[in-house]
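Blackboard transcription, Thursday session:
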Amino acid sequence: MKKQFKFLLPLLLALTSCIEDPQTYPNTWQGNFDALWNTIDTRYCYLDYKQINWDSIHVVYQGRLSSVSTEFDFFDLMGNMLNELKDGHVNLYSDFDQSRYWNWFKDYPSNFQAELIYSPRYLGSNYRISGGIRYGKIGGGTIGYMYYGDFSATFTSDNLNYIFKYLSDCQGLILDVRDNGGGYLTSAQTLASCFFDEKTLTGYMTHKTGDGHSDFSGPLAMYTDKTDSTHWNKPVMVLTNRMSFSATNAFVSQMKYAPRTTIVGDRTGGGGGLPLSNELPNGWLVRFSACPMYDAEMQQTEWGLDPDVKVDMSSADALSGYDTIIERAIALLWVI
Amino acid sequence: MLKVYWITLGLTLGLFSGVVAQQSEDKKYLLSSMTSQIGWSSLELNDGYLSDLPYNGYGMHVNTTLRRFMSLENNRISLRNDFDLFVGAAVNMPQTASIAYIGGNGGLGMQAHFKPLKNFQVLVGGELDAEMGIKAYSREVNNAGNLDLAANLNLAVTIRYDLPVWKNHVRLQADFRSPLLGLMFVPVRGESYSEIYYFQNYENLFHLSSLHNKYGLNARYLIQIPINKSFVNIGLHSEYLKYAANNMVFRRKTTSLEIGVSCDLVLFGGSKNRAPVRFISSEW
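(Written on the board underneath:)
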Protein backbone atom coordinates (compact mmCIF):
# COMPACT_ATOMS: atom_id res chain seq x y z
CA MET A 1 0.00 0.00 0.00
CA LYS A 2 2.77 2.42 0.96
CA LYS A 3 4.60 1.58 -2.24
CA GLN A 4 1.53 2.25 -4.33
CA PHE A 5 0.95 5.54 -2.57
CA LYS A 6 4.57 6.56 -3.18
CA PHE A 7 4.03 5.90 -6.84
CA LEU A 8 0.60 7.52 -7.04
CA LEU A 9 1.41 10.81 -5.36
CA PRO A 10 4.17 11.94 -7.76
CA LEU A 11 2.01 10.82 -10.69
CA LEU A 12 -0.89 12.94 -9.49
CA LEU A 13 1.40 15.90 -8.93
CA ALA A 14 2.92 15.46 -12.37
CA LEU A 15 -0.47 15.30 -14.04
CA THR A 16 -1.87 18.27 -12.21
CA SER A 17 0.96 20.51 -13.29
CA CYS A 18 -0.04 20.29 -16.95
CA ILE A 19 -2.44 23.22 -17.16
CA GLU A 20 -0.45 26.24 -18.13
CA ASP A 21 -1.84 29.58 -17.13
CA PRO A 22 -2.53 31.92 -20.04
CA GLN A 23 -0.04 34.66 -20.66
CA THR A 24 -0.84 37.67 -18.52
CA TYR A 25 0.26 41.23 -19.05
CA PRO A 26 0.95 43.89 -16.44
CA ASN A 27 -1.34 46.87 -16.25
CA THR A 28 1.20 49.25 -17.72
CA TRP A 29 1.14 51.01 -21.07
CA GLN A 30 3.56 48.43 -22.41
CA GLY A 31 1.52 45.59 -20.92
CA ASN A 32 -1.75 46.88 -22.35
CA PHE A 33 -0.11 47.53 -25.71
CA ASP A 34 1.20 43.96 -25.81
CA ALA A 35 -2.15 42.53 -24.70
CA LEU A 36 -3.98 44.40 -27.46
CA TRP A 37 -1.47 43.48 -30.12
CA ASN A 38 -1.56 39.83 -29.06
CA THR A 39 -5.36 39.67 -29.00
CA ILE A 40 -5.51 40.88 -32.59
CA ASP A 41 -2.58 38.70 -33.62
CA THR A 42 -4.22 35.52 -32.33
CA ARG A 43 -7.93 36.17 -32.65
CA TYR A 44 -8.64 38.68 -35.45
CA CYS A 45 -9.85 36.81 -38.51
CA TYR A 46 -8.84 39.01 -41.46
CA LEU A 47 -5.07 39.50 -41.06
CA ASP A 48 -4.28 37.13 -43.91
CA TYR A 49 -7.21 38.11 -46.10
CA LYS A 50 -6.35 41.81 -45.84
CA GLN A 51 -2.64 41.05 -46.18
CA ILE A 52 -1.81 43.03 -43.07
CA ASN A 53 1.70 42.66 -41.72
CA TRP A 54 0.77 42.81 -38.05
CA ASP A 55 4.38 42.30 -36.95
CA SER A 56 5.52 45.42 -38.73
CA ILE A 57 2.60 47.35 -37.28
CA HIS A 58 3.85 46.28 -33.87
CA VAL A 59 7.25 47.72 -34.69
CA VAL A 60 5.81 51.02 -35.89
CA TYR A 61 3.49 51.60 -32.94
CA GLN A 62 5.92 50.25 -30.37
CA GLY A 63 8.25 53.02 -31.51
CA ARG A 64 5.57 55.62 -30.84
CA LEU A 65 4.75 54.29 -27.39
CA SER A 66 7.67 56.09 -25.77
CA SER A 67 6.32 59.47 -26.86
CA VAL A 68 2.96 58.91 -25.16
CA SER A 69 2.47 61.06 -22.08
CA THR A 70 -1.24 60.93 -21.16
CA GLU A 71 -3.94 58.28 -21.00
CA PHE A 72 -5.74 60.02 -23.86
CA ASP A 73 -2.60 59.88 -26.03
CA PHE A 74 -2.23 56.23 -25.18
CA PHE A 75 -5.83 55.52 -26.13
CA ASP A 76 -5.36 57.32 -29.44
CA LEU A 77 -2.21 55.35 -30.17
CA MET A 78 -3.99 52.07 -29.52
CA GLY A 79 -7.02 53.20 -31.53
CA ASN A 80 -4.83 54.20 -34.45
CA MET A 81 -3.10 50.84 -34.37
CA LEU A 82 -6.50 49.15 -34.57
CA ASN A 83 -7.54 51.41 -37.44
CA GLU A 84 -4.78 49.82 -39.51
CA LEU A 85 -7.19 46.87 -39.75
CA LYS A 86 -9.68 49.03 -41.68
CA ASP A 87 -12.58 47.30 -40.03
CA GLY A 88 -15.78 48.88 -38.77
CA HIS A 89 -16.20 45.99 -36.35
CA VAL A 90 -12.99 46.82 -34.52
CA ASN A 91 -13.32 49.19 -31.59
CA LEU A 92 -11.55 49.99 -28.39
CA TYR A 93 -13.81 51.01 -25.50
CA SER A 94 -12.68 52.96 -22.47
CA ASP A 95 -14.58 54.99 -19.92
CA PHE A 96 -13.78 58.15 -21.83
CA ASP A 97 -13.81 57.21 -25.51
CA GLN A 98 -14.55 54.65 -28.17
CA SER A 99 -12.15 54.24 -31.05
CA ARG A 100 -13.70 53.55 -34.43
CA TYR A 101 -12.86 53.18 -38.05
CA TRP A 102 -15.45 55.01 -40.11
CA ASN A 103 -13.69 55.45 -43.42
CA TRP A 104 -15.63 52.50 -44.80
CA PHE A 105 -18.53 54.91 -45.27
CA LYS A 106 -16.95 58.35 -44.91
CA ASP A 107 -14.93 57.90 -48.06
CA TYR A 108 -18.10 57.27 -50.09
CA PRO A 109 -21.22 59.23 -51.01
CA SER A 110 -23.91 58.95 -48.35
CA ASN A 111 -26.66 58.04 -50.84
CA PHE A 112 -29.29 58.61 -48.21
CA GLN A 113 -31.16 61.57 -46.83
CA ALA A 114 -33.61 60.65 -44.11
CA GLU A 115 -35.72 63.77 -44.58
CA LEU A 116 -36.47 62.74 -48.15
CA ILE A 117 -38.09 59.44 -47.26
CA TYR A 118 -40.41 61.26 -44.85
CA SER A 119 -41.41 63.78 -47.49
CA PRO A 120 -45.00 63.63 -48.85
CA ARG A 121 -43.73 61.98 -52.03
CA TYR A 122 -42.71 58.87 -50.08
CA LEU A 123 -43.68 57.93 -46.53
CA GLY A 124 -44.98 61.37 -45.55
CA SER A 125 -45.94 61.76 -41.93
CA ASN A 126 -48.77 59.23 -41.72
CA TYR A 127 -46.70 56.15 -42.24
CA ARG A 128 -47.11 53.08 -40.10
CA ILE A 129 -44.54 51.59 -37.73
CA SER A 130 -44.39 47.94 -36.80
CA GLY A 131 -41.50 46.23 -35.06
CA GLY A 132 -39.07 48.98 -35.97
CA ILE A 133 -40.13 48.93 -39.62
CA ARG A 134 -41.66 52.07 -41.08
CA TYR A 135 -43.91 51.36 -44.02
CA GLY A 136 -46.48 52.76 -46.37
CA LYS A 137 -47.54 52.89 -50.01
CA ILE A 138 -45.78 55.07 -52.52
CA GLY A 139 -45.84 55.54 -56.30
CA GLY A 140 -49.53 56.34 -56.31
CA GLY A 141 -50.29 53.48 -53.98
CA THR A 142 -48.86 50.87 -56.34
CA ILE A 143 -45.58 50.18 -54.54
CA GLY A 144 -45.06 49.07 -50.99
CA TYR A 145 -42.21 50.78 -49.14
CA MET A 146 -40.53 49.54 -45.97
CA TYR A 147 -37.72 51.38 -44.24
CA TYR A 148 -35.79 49.30 -41.75
CA GLY A 149 -32.95 51.26 -40.18
CA ASP A 150 -31.75 49.01 -37.37
CA PHE A 151 -31.58 45.23 -37.17
CA SER A 152 -31.47 45.58 -33.38
CA ALA A 153 -35.09 46.76 -33.47
CA THR A 154 -36.67 43.34 -33.42
CA PHE A 155 -39.93 42.35 -35.08
CA THR A 156 -42.23 39.37 -34.89
CA SER A 157 -43.85 37.33 -37.62
CA ASP A 158 -47.11 39.05 -36.69
CA ASN A 159 -45.50 42.41 -37.40
CA LEU A 160 -44.42 41.20 -40.83
CA ASN A 161 -47.77 39.56 -41.52
CA TYR A 162 -49.58 42.82 -40.94
CA ILE A 163 -47.12 44.76 -43.05
CA PHE A 164 -47.45 42.34 -45.96
CA LYS A 165 -51.21 42.27 -45.55
CA TYR A 166 -51.35 46.06 -45.71
CA LEU A 167 -49.16 46.11 -48.81
CA SER A 168 -50.77 43.09 -50.45
CA ASP A 169 -52.43 45.09 -53.22
CA CYS A 170 -49.10 46.61 -54.28
CA GLN A 171 -47.36 45.28 -57.36
CA GLY A 172 -43.94 45.26 -55.75
CA LEU A 173 -42.02 46.14 -52.63
CA ILE A 174 -39.10 48.44 -51.90
CA LEU A 175 -37.18 47.32 -48.84
CA ASP A 176 -34.88 50.15 -47.86
CA VAL A 177 -31.96 49.17 -45.60
CA ARG A 178 -29.78 52.19 -46.29
CA ASP A 179 -28.06 53.63 -43.23
CA ASN A 180 -28.85 50.42 -41.37
CA GLY A 181 -25.65 49.77 -39.43
CA GLY A 182 -26.63 46.24 -38.43
CA GLY A 183 -27.85 44.50 -35.31
CA TYR A 184 -29.01 40.95 -34.77
CA LEU A 185 -28.05 38.38 -37.38
CA THR A 186 -31.16 36.42 -36.44
CA SER A 187 -33.33 39.38 -37.47
CA ALA A 188 -31.51 39.53 -40.81
CA GLN A 189 -32.11 35.82 -41.27
CA THR A 190 -35.79 36.04 -40.32
CA LEU A 191 -36.51 38.97 -42.60
CA ALA A 192 -34.66 37.42 -45.56
CA SER A 193 -36.57 34.16 -45.18
CA CYS A 194 -39.83 35.96 -46.06
CA PHE A 195 -38.65 36.35 -49.63
CA PHE A 196 -37.48 32.81 -50.40
CA ASP A 197 -39.58 30.12 -52.08
CA GLU A 198 -37.42 27.27 -50.85
CA LYS A 199 -34.50 26.52 -48.56
CA THR A 200 -31.47 28.03 -50.30
CA LEU A 201 -27.75 28.02 -49.65
CA THR A 202 -26.89 31.67 -49.09
CA GLY A 203 -23.46 31.65 -47.48
CA TYR A 204 -20.86 30.16 -45.23
CA MET A 205 -19.22 31.01 -41.94
CA THR A 206 -15.99 29.89 -40.32
CA HIS A 207 -14.37 30.65 -37.00
CA LYS A 208 -10.86 30.69 -35.64
CA THR A 209 -9.73 27.48 -34.05
CA GLY A 210 -6.18 28.44 -33.06
CA ASP A 211 -3.77 31.32 -32.65
CA GLY A 212 -2.33 31.17 -36.17
CA HIS A 213 -3.54 33.73 -38.71
CA SER A 214 -4.96 30.97 -40.90
CA ASP A 215 -6.27 28.60 -38.22
CA PHE A 216 -9.91 28.35 -39.23
CA SER A 217 -12.61 25.76 -38.95
CA GLY A 218 -14.10 24.30 -42.09
CA PRO A 219 -16.87 26.40 -43.66
CA LEU A 220 -20.32 25.88 -42.19
CA ALA A 221 -23.11 26.25 -44.72
CA MET A 222 -25.76 28.89 -44.03
CA TYR A 223 -29.17 28.26 -45.48
CA THR A 224 -32.06 30.65 -45.73
CA ASP A 225 -35.29 28.78 -45.39
CA LYS A 226 -38.71 29.68 -46.68
CA THR A 227 -41.17 30.99 -44.10
CA ASP A 228 -44.61 29.64 -44.89
CA SER A 229 -46.52 31.95 -42.60
CA THR A 230 -44.89 35.17 -43.76
CA HIS A 231 -44.13 35.15 -47.42
CA TRP A 232 -43.83 37.93 -50.00
CA ASN A 233 -44.10 36.56 -53.53
CA LYS A 234 -43.91 39.71 -55.62
CA PRO A 235 -40.86 41.61 -56.90
CA VAL A 236 -38.62 43.25 -54.31
CA MET A 237 -36.05 46.02 -54.62
CA VAL A 238 -33.56 46.14 -51.74
CA LEU A 239 -32.00 49.60 -51.40
CA THR A 240 -28.45 49.77 -50.08
CA ASN A 241 -25.70 52.26 -49.41
CA ARG A 242 -22.29 52.13 -47.75
CA MET A 243 -23.88 52.45 -44.33
CA SER A 244 -25.60 49.08 -44.86
CA PHE A 245 -23.19 47.32 -42.56
CA SER A 246 -22.70 44.16 -40.52
CA ALA A 247 -26.03 42.29 -40.07
CA THR A 248 -27.43 44.41 -42.92
CA ASN A 249 -24.52 43.29 -45.08
CA ALA A 250 -25.40 39.70 -44.15
CA PHE A 251 -29.05 40.38 -45.01
CA VAL A 252 -28.12 41.73 -48.43
CA SER A 253 -25.76 38.80 -48.96
CA GLN A 254 -28.72 36.46 -48.47
CA MET A 255 -31.13 38.57 -50.51
CA LYS A 256 -28.83 38.31 -53.53
CA TYR A 257 -30.03 34.69 -53.77
CA ALA A 258 -33.72 35.45 -53.23
CA PRO A 259 -36.03 35.12 -56.24
CA ARG A 260 -37.64 38.25 -57.76
CA THR A 261 -35.13 40.39 -55.86
CA THR A 262 -32.89 43.17 -57.13
CA ILE A 263 -30.31 45.05 -55.06
CA VAL A 264 -30.35 48.76 -55.97
CA GLY A 265 -28.13 51.59 -54.80
CA ASP A 266 -24.53 51.64 -53.67
CA ARG A 267 -22.11 48.97 -52.54
CA THR A 268 -22.81 47.87 -48.96
CA GLY A 269 -20.38 48.75 -46.18
CA GLY A 270 -19.25 45.22 -45.42
CA GLY A 271 -18.51 44.10 -41.90
CA GLY A 272 -18.56 40.43 -42.78
CA GLY A 273 -16.92 39.23 -39.59
CA LEU A 274 -18.99 38.38 -36.54
CA PRO A 275 -17.31 40.32 -33.72
CA LEU A 276 -16.18 38.96 -30.36
CA SER A 277 -14.35 40.78 -27.59
CA ASN A 278 -11.59 40.65 -25.04
CA GLU A 279 -10.34 42.88 -22.24
CA LEU A 280 -7.04 44.55 -21.63
CA PRO A 281 -5.37 44.66 -18.20
CA ASN A 282 -6.64 48.23 -17.66
CA GLY A 283 -10.24 47.12 -18.28
CA TRP A 284 -10.59 48.57 -21.76
CA LEU A 285 -12.59 46.36 -24.08
CA VAL A 286 -11.48 45.50 -27.58
CA ARG A 287 -14.04 44.30 -30.10
CA PHE A 288 -12.79 42.57 -33.21
CA SER A 289 -14.00 40.47 -36.14
CA ALA A 290 -13.64 36.81 -35.25
CA CYS A 291 -15.86 34.73 -37.54
CA PRO A 292 -15.70 35.57 -41.24
CA MET A 293 -18.83 35.21 -43.33
CA TYR A 294 -18.84 34.36 -47.03
CA ASP A 295 -21.45 34.36 -49.75
CA ALA A 296 -22.65 31.14 -51.36
CA GLU A 297 -19.66 31.22 -53.73
CA MET A 298 -17.30 31.33 -50.73
CA GLN A 299 -16.38 34.94 -51.48
CA GLN A 300 -15.61 37.17 -48.51
CA THR A 301 -18.21 39.80 -47.69
CA GLU A 302 -15.92 41.91 -45.49
CA TRP A 303 -15.45 44.70 -48.03
CA GLY A 304 -19.13 44.91 -48.95
CA LEU A 305 -21.41 43.70 -51.72
CA ASP A 306 -22.06 45.32 -55.07
CA PRO A 307 -25.65 46.09 -56.00
CA ASP A 308 -27.28 44.59 -59.07
CA VAL A 309 -28.17 48.10 -60.21
CA LYS A 310 -25.70 50.79 -59.19
CA VAL A 311 -27.41 54.11 -58.52
CA ASP A 312 -26.03 57.18 -56.75
CA MET A 313 -28.23 59.89 -55.40
CA SER A 314 -28.22 63.06 -57.42
CA SER A 315 -27.97 66.27 -55.45
CA ALA A 316 -30.21 67.96 -58.04
CA ASP A 317 -32.88 65.31 -57.44
CA ALA A 318 -32.51 65.73 -53.70
CA LEU A 319 -33.03 69.48 -54.01
CA SER A 320 -36.23 68.78 -55.92
CA GLY A 321 -37.42 66.35 -53.23
CA TYR A 322 -36.58 63.18 -55.10
CA ASP A 323 -34.62 60.27 -53.80
CA THR A 324 -32.83 59.03 -56.92
CA ILE A 325 -32.44 55.50 -55.62
CA ILE A 326 -36.09 55.11 -54.63
CA GLU A 327 -37.14 56.60 -57.96
CA ARG A 328 -34.99 54.09 -59.81
CA ALA A 329 -36.44 51.24 -57.77
CA ILE A 330 -40.00 52.40 -58.52
CA ALA A 331 -39.17 52.56 -62.21
CA LEU A 332 -37.69 49.07 -62.13
CA LEU A 333 -40.79 47.69 -60.39
CA TRP A 334 -43.12 49.38 -62.84
CA VAL A 335 -41.45 47.79 -65.82
CA ILE A 336 -41.45 44.27 -64.35
CA MET B 1 -42.25 9.90 -7.56
CA LEU B 2 -40.20 8.11 -4.97
CA LYS B 3 -37.49 10.72 -5.26
CA VAL B 4 -39.96 13.59 -4.96
CA TYR B 5 -41.39 12.09 -1.83
CA TRP B 6 -37.96 11.64 -0.30
CA ILE B 7 -36.84 15.12 -1.17
CA THR B 8 -40.06 16.74 0.06
CA LEU B 9 -40.00 14.87 3.31
CA GLY B 10 -36.30 15.41 3.77
CA LEU B 11 -36.38 19.13 3.10
CA THR B 12 -39.43 19.68 5.26
CA LEU B 13 -37.85 17.95 8.20
CA GLY B 14 -34.38 19.26 7.54
CA LEU B 15 -35.32 22.89 7.93
CA PHE B 16 -35.70 22.37 11.64
CA SER B 17 -32.90 20.62 13.39
CA GLY B 18 -35.12 19.91 16.34
CA VAL B 19 -37.49 17.89 14.23
CA VAL B 20 -36.00 14.45 14.38
CA ALA B 21 -38.00 11.49 13.32
CA GLN B 22 -38.73 8.99 15.98
CA GLN B 23 -37.36 5.54 15.57
CA SER B 24 -39.66 2.60 15.91
CA GLU B 25 -38.89 0.44 18.92
CA ASP B 26 -39.83 -2.81 17.29
CA LYS B 27 -38.37 -2.29 13.83
CA LYS B 28 -34.98 -1.09 12.71
CA TYR B 29 -34.87 1.85 10.36
CA LEU B 30 -31.98 3.28 8.41
CA LEU B 31 -31.33 6.84 9.39
CA SER B 32 -30.37 9.36 6.77
CA SER B 33 -28.07 12.03 8.05
CA MET B 34 -28.62 15.37 6.48
CA THR B 35 -26.18 18.25 6.68
CA SER B 36 -27.37 21.57 5.33
CA GLN B 37 -25.00 24.51 5.15
CA ILE B 38 -25.35 28.10 4.04
CA GLY B 39 -22.35 30.33 3.53
CA TRP B 40 -21.08 33.74 2.52
CA SER B 41 -18.29 33.37 0.07
CA SER B 42 -15.55 35.11 -1.80
CA LEU B 43 -15.41 34.32 -5.50
CA GLU B 44 -12.58 34.36 -8.01
CA LEU B 45 -13.31 33.59 -11.63
CA ASN B 46 -11.22 33.22 -14.74
CA ASP B 47 -13.11 32.56 -17.92
CA GLY B 48 -10.94 32.60 -21.02
CA TYR B 49 -14.00 32.70 -23.25
CA LEU B 50 -15.31 35.95 -21.78
CA SER B 51 -12.12 37.76 -20.90
CA ASP B 52 -8.43 37.31 -20.24
CA LEU B 53 -8.83 39.19 -16.96
CA PRO B 54 -9.51 37.58 -13.58
CA TYR B 55 -12.73 38.55 -11.82
CA ASN B 56 -13.19 38.82 -8.05
CA GLY B 57 -16.36 39.13 -6.04
CA TYR B 58 -18.72 37.61 -3.53
CA GLY B 59 -21.58 35.22 -3.40
CA MET B 60 -23.67 32.88 -1.34
CA HIS B 61 -23.89 29.18 -1.47
CA VAL B 62 -26.02 26.45 0.00
CA ASN B 63 -25.14 22.81 0.29
CA THR B 64 -27.04 19.77 1.42
CA THR B 65 -25.48 16.37 1.93
CA LEU B 66 -27.59 13.31 2.63
CA ARG B 67 -25.92 10.15 3.80
CA ARG B 68 -27.13 6.71 4.84
CA PHE B 69 -25.75 3.19 4.99
CA MET B 70 -26.49 0.97 2.05
CA SER B 71 -28.70 -1.34 4.05
CA LEU B 72 -29.51 -2.33 7.61
CA GLU B 73 -27.03 -5.14 7.35
CA ASN B 74 -24.23 -3.19 5.69
CA ASN B 75 -22.90 -0.43 7.90
CA ARG B 76 -19.51 -0.34 6.22
CA ILE B 77 -20.54 1.48 3.07
CA SER B 78 -22.69 4.57 2.90
CA LEU B 79 -24.44 6.35 0.06
CA ARG B 80 -24.16 10.09 -0.18
CA ASN B 81 -26.02 12.72 -2.15
CA ASP B 82 -24.66 16.23 -2.50
CA PHE B 83 -26.49 19.28 -3.75
CA ASP B 84 -24.66 22.59 -4.15
CA LEU B 85 -25.90 25.94 -5.35
CA PHE B 86 -23.79 29.06 -5.70
CA VAL B 87 -24.93 32.54 -6.65
CA GLY B 88 -22.44 35.35 -6.96
CA ALA B 89 -21.08 38.29 -8.87
CA ALA B 90 -17.55 39.40 -9.62
CA VAL B 91 -15.86 42.38 -11.21
CA ASN B 92 -12.55 42.75 -12.98
CA MET B 93 -9.70 44.53 -11.25
CA PRO B 94 -10.20 47.89 -13.03
CA GLN B 95 -13.94 47.53 -12.23
CA THR B 96 -15.05 48.14 -15.80
CA ALA B 97 -17.15 45.00 -16.17
CA SER B 98 -18.82 42.32 -14.12
CA ILE B 99 -19.81 38.69 -14.37
CA ALA B 100 -22.90 37.31 -12.65
CA TYR B 101 -22.55 33.64 -11.85
CA ILE B 102 -25.01 30.97 -10.84
CA GLY B 103 -23.92 27.37 -10.62
CA GLY B 104 -25.24 24.14 -9.24
CA ASN B 105 -23.98 20.66 -8.71
CA GLY B 106 -25.68 17.40 -7.85
CA GLY B 107 -23.79 14.26 -6.94
CA LEU B 108 -24.39 10.67 -5.98
CA GLY B 109 -21.62 8.67 -4.35
CA MET B 110 -20.56 5.83 -2.19
CA GLN B 111 -17.95 5.71 0.58
CA ALA B 112 -16.45 2.90 2.62
CA HIS B 113 -16.11 3.56 6.36
CA PHE B 114 -12.89 2.77 8.20
CA LYS B 115 -12.30 3.22 11.91
CA PRO B 116 -8.55 2.94 12.42
CA LEU B 117 -8.62 4.57 15.86
CA LYS B 118 -11.11 5.24 18.59
CA ASN B 119 -13.30 8.25 17.76
CA PHE B 120 -11.64 8.47 14.37
CA GLN B 121 -13.23 7.61 11.03
CA VAL B 122 -12.00 7.75 7.46
CA LEU B 123 -14.52 7.47 4.65
CA VAL B 124 -13.12 6.81 1.17
CA GLY B 125 -15.04 6.42 -2.05
CA GLY B 126 -16.23 7.99 -5.22
CA GLU B 127 -18.99 10.19 -6.45
CA LEU B 128 -20.59 10.91 -9.80
CA ASP B 129 -21.73 14.49 -10.20
CA ALA B 130 -23.31 16.74 -12.76
CA GLU B 131 -22.46 20.41 -12.79
CA MET B 132 -24.03 23.35 -14.50
CA GLY B 133 -23.27 27.03 -14.30
CA ILE B 134 -24.12 30.19 -16.18
CA LYS B 135 -21.91 33.25 -16.39
CA ALA B 136 -23.47 36.45 -17.67
CA TYR B 137 -21.08 39.16 -18.77
CA SER B 138 -22.15 42.76 -18.29
CA ARG B 139 -20.76 44.01 -21.58
CA GLU B 140 -22.93 44.00 -24.67
CA VAL B 141 -20.92 41.83 -27.02
CA ASN B 142 -21.47 38.58 -28.90
CA ASN B 143 -19.62 36.59 -26.23
CA ALA B 144 -21.92 37.91 -23.51
CA GLY B 145 -22.12 34.73 -21.50
CA ASN B 146 -20.73 31.30 -21.00
CA LEU B 147 -22.04 27.98 -19.87
CA ASP B 148 -20.32 25.52 -17.54
CA LEU B 149 -21.44 21.96 -18.10
CA ALA B 150 -19.65 18.91 -16.81
CA ALA B 151 -20.09 15.42 -15.46
CA ASN B 152 -17.35 14.12 -13.18
CA LEU B 153 -16.22 11.08 -11.32
CA ASN B 154 -14.82 12.42 -8.06
CA LEU B 155 -12.64 10.95 -5.41
CA ALA B 156 -14.43 11.56 -2.12
CA VAL B 157 -12.66 11.38 1.22
CA THR B 158 -14.15 12.30 4.59
CA ILE B 159 -12.23 12.37 7.85
CA ARG B 160 -14.02 12.58 11.20
CA TYR B 161 -12.82 12.87 14.73
CA ASP B 162 -15.20 12.87 17.66
CA LEU B 163 -13.64 14.99 20.34
CA PRO B 164 -14.98 14.03 23.77
CA VAL B 165 -16.32 17.07 25.62
CA TRP B 166 -17.99 16.48 28.98
CA LYS B 167 -20.59 13.78 28.44
CA ASN B 168 -20.84 14.42 24.75
CA HIS B 169 -18.54 14.93 21.84
CA VAL B 170 -17.81 17.63 19.29
CA ARG B 171 -17.24 16.30 15.84
CA LEU B 172 -14.46 17.66 13.69
CA GLN B 173 -14.99 16.75 10.08
CA ALA B 174 -13.09 17.38 6.88
CA ASP B 175 -14.64 16.41 3.58
CA PHE B 176 -12.76 16.45 0.29
CA ARG B 177 -13.95 15.86 -3.25
CA SER B 178 -11.71 16.03 -6.27
CA PRO B 179 -12.53 15.37 -9.94
CA LEU B 180 -10.64 12.49 -11.52
CA LEU B 181 -12.40 11.78 -14.79
CA GLY B 182 -15.29 13.26 -16.69
CA LEU B 183 -16.80 14.99 -19.62
CA MET B 184 -16.98 18.74 -19.95
CA PHE B 185 -18.42 21.31 -22.31
CA VAL B 186 -16.09 24.13 -23.34
CA PRO B 187 -16.93 26.48 -26.24
CA VAL B 188 -14.41 27.22 -28.96
CA ARG B 189 -12.83 30.58 -28.21
CA GLY B 190 -13.47 32.03 -31.65
CA GLU B 191 -17.04 30.80 -31.94
CA SER B 192 -20.12 32.56 -30.63
CA TYR B 193 -23.01 30.74 -29.01
CA SER B 194 -25.31 32.02 -31.75
CA GLU B 195 -23.07 30.22 -34.23
CA ILE B 196 -23.28 27.01 -32.19
CA TYR B 197 -27.05 27.38 -32.03
CA TYR B 198 -27.58 28.35 -35.65
CA PHE B 199 -25.33 25.73 -37.20
CA GLN B 200 -25.88 23.10 -34.52
CA ASN B 201 -22.15 22.70 -34.79
CA TYR B 202 -20.90 20.76 -31.79
CA GLU B 203 -17.37 20.13 -32.99
CA ASN B 204 -14.69 20.53 -30.28
CA LEU B 205 -17.25 21.46 -27.65
CA PHE B 206 -17.18 18.32 -25.53
CA HIS B 207 -13.95 17.13 -23.96
CA LEU B 208 -12.97 14.19 -21.87
CA SER B 209 -11.47 15.47 -18.66
CA SER B 210 -8.91 13.95 -16.38
CA LEU B 211 -6.13 15.32 -14.24
CA HIS B 212 -4.19 16.47 -17.30
CA ASN B 213 -6.82 19.12 -18.19
CA LYS B 214 -8.94 19.46 -15.08
CA TYR B 215 -8.25 19.40 -11.40
CA GLY B 216 -9.68 20.82 -8.27
CA LEU B 217 -10.50 20.33 -4.67
CA ASN B 218 -13.80 20.88 -2.95
CA ALA B 219 -13.02 20.93 0.76
CA ARG B 220 -15.31 21.48 3.72
CA TYR B 221 -14.09 21.69 7.31
CA LEU B 222 -16.79 21.48 9.96
CA ILE B 223 -16.96 21.79 13.69
CA GLN B 224 -20.16 20.03 14.65
CA ILE B 225 -21.52 20.98 18.04
CA PRO B 226 -24.12 18.60 19.43
CA ILE B 227 -27.43 20.05 20.51
CA ASN B 228 -29.96 17.43 21.61
CA LYS B 229 -29.87 14.81 18.88
CA SER B 230 -28.60 17.15 16.19
CA PHE B 231 -25.52 19.16 15.36
CA VAL B 232 -25.06 22.82 14.76
CA ASN B 233 -22.20 23.25 12.33
CA ILE B 234 -19.68 25.99 11.88
CA GLY B 235 -17.54 25.52 8.83
CA LEU B 236 -15.11 26.69 6.27
CA HIS B 237 -15.68 25.65 2.71
CA SER B 238 -13.26 26.15 -0.12
CA GLU B 239 -13.49 25.12 -3.73
CA TYR B 240 -10.75 25.36 -6.29
CA LEU B 241 -11.36 24.20 -9.83
CA LYS B 242 -9.15 24.70 -12.83
CA TYR B 243 -9.61 23.27 -16.30
CA ALA B 244 -8.40 23.94 -19.79
CA ALA B 245 -9.64 23.19 -23.29
CA ASN B 246 -9.71 24.87 -26.69
CA ASN B 247 -6.69 27.04 -25.81
CA MET B 248 -8.48 28.57 -22.85
CA VAL B 249 -8.05 28.23 -19.11
CA PHE B 250 -10.92 28.45 -16.66
CA ARG B 251 -10.64 28.80 -12.92
CA ARG B 252 -13.08 29.13 -10.07
CA LYS B 253 -12.10 29.64 -6.47
CA THR B 254 -14.46 30.18 -3.60
CA THR B 255 -13.87 30.41 0.13
CA SER B 256 -16.85 30.46 2.42
CA LEU B 257 -17.64 30.81 6.04
CA GLU B 258 -20.71 28.78 6.67
CA ILE B 259 -23.17 27.64 9.27
CA GLY B 260 -25.62 24.83 9.19
CA VAL B 261 -27.26 21.92 10.87
CA SER B 262 -26.99 18.16 10.78
CA CYS B 263 -29.77 15.88 11.80
CA ASP B 264 -30.97 12.35 11.30
CA LEU B 265 -34.10 11.62 9.35
CA VAL B 266 -36.08 8.53 8.58
CA LEU B 267 -37.08 8.61 4.95
CA PHE B 268 -40.05 6.63 3.77
CA GLY B 269 -41.06 6.03 0.22
CA GLY B 270 -42.29 3.48 -2.24
CA SER B 271 -44.45 0.47 -1.67
CA LYS B 272 -41.87 -1.49 0.33
CA ASN B 273 -40.88 1.29 2.67
CA ARG B 274 -44.15 2.73 3.85
CA ALA B 275 -44.32 4.93 6.91
CA PRO B 276 -45.86 3.23 9.97
CA VAL B 277 -49.32 4.51 10.80
CA ARG B 278 -48.12 6.48 13.81
CA PHE B 279 -46.01 8.65 11.48
CA ILE B 280 -48.27 11.49 10.39
CA SER B 281 -47.38 13.19 7.14
CA SER B 282 -48.68 16.54 5.97
CA GLU B 283 -48.41 15.27 2.41
CA TRP B 284 -50.55 12.10 2.55
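Lecturer's comment: The two ends of chain B are 13 Å apart (CA to CA).
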